Amino acid sequence: MNDASLFDASAFEARREALGGRFGVPLVRMAETGSTNDDALEAAKRGERHGAVFVADAQRSGRGRRGSAWTSPPAENLTFSVLIRPEAAPERVSAVALVAGLAVRDAVAARVRDAVSLKWPNDVLCTGRKIAGILVESRMEGSAVEAVVVGIGVNVHMRDLPAEIATIATSLALLGDPSPSREALLAEILAGFERRLSRFEAAGLIPMLSELNDHDALRGRPITVGDVTGVGCGIGDEGALLVRDAHGAVHRVTSGTVRL
Fold first, then answer.
1. Which of the four pLDDT bands, split at 50, 70 and 90, describes residue 256?
2. Helix 96-109 to helix 182-203 angle, to the nearest 10 degrees?
3. pLDDT, tens digit, 9 for 90 and up, residues 125-154
4. For residues 54 and 38, what is the distance between their CA atoms, to the nearest angstrom?
5. The pLDDT of residue 22
């Protein structure tokens, strides 16, 4: 990586101030790290403040759900983690991935012509391909949530996709954004996430249900999650995936990997 390709903290700060957001203070910018989620979790132990953001040009051990690796060439994509200390019961924390997903969806949709959707529980899709993923991890203090780390990866400049993901992934550059800015994208995602998180803390997902269901990539599609098979019929008010089986019964799925 050369200096010109590194994340520009001053450009991010200018966009953050223009949007009036508070997330991203402090911003910890690293050329390389193991995992921004691990960095944020360690910072949480030290008492780092709500809204701190950790962004890296390269991660050696980036990961997605269930331990899967996150492929990201150095300085081409946006990989970061947000440390939050939400007023939320432990059973509500998983829904934070959907709250963050809406913020990512909005920022991506503002840059591309194609429809952008959410694939429950933590992916953002465009043209049916993954452009972003979200990983939420918690730090507990007894039975209470002491801190939550929201890790987000967005494919930005990447054009030459590795063979193993070439048919299932995409990027802003591939979707026609001529000069995608990682700095502006981060500021916009954070501002949207901050606004939605306040609403979530006050009233859960209910204020966002219409938006979630409007952009649900699984709605009306045949799917299988674990031992549940049927047709996706929306997202419930606690963040569960709703699946209608062949007998008309609706199942609430709270965890699992979706197979189309």
1. very high
2. 140
3. 999 999 999 999 999 988 899 999 999 999
4. 10
5. 96
Residues shown for the chain:
260
Please identify which residue in the block is written with the tokens 């969806």. Answer: 105
- The answer to whether the CB of 33 falls within 8 A of the CB of 56 is yes
Both tokens of 166, joined, read: 């070439």
The 3-state DSSP class for residue 252 equals strand
Give the tens place of pLDDT for each residue, 177-202: 988 999 999 999 999 999 999 999 99
The CA distance from 34 to 119, in Å, is 27
CA dist list (Å): 98 to 117, 163, 200, 244 = 11, 29, 10, 21
Which residue(s) pair with 230 in the sheet? 223
Q: Give me the chain's average pLDDT, please.
A: 93
* Per-residue pLDDT, 198: 96
Whether the predicted pLDDT of 96 surpasses 90: yes
CA distances from 90 to 44, 52, 60, 111, 255 (A): 17, 21, 30, 34, 15
76/213 Cα distance (integer angstroms):
31
- Give 70's Cβ-side CA count (13 Å radius): 31
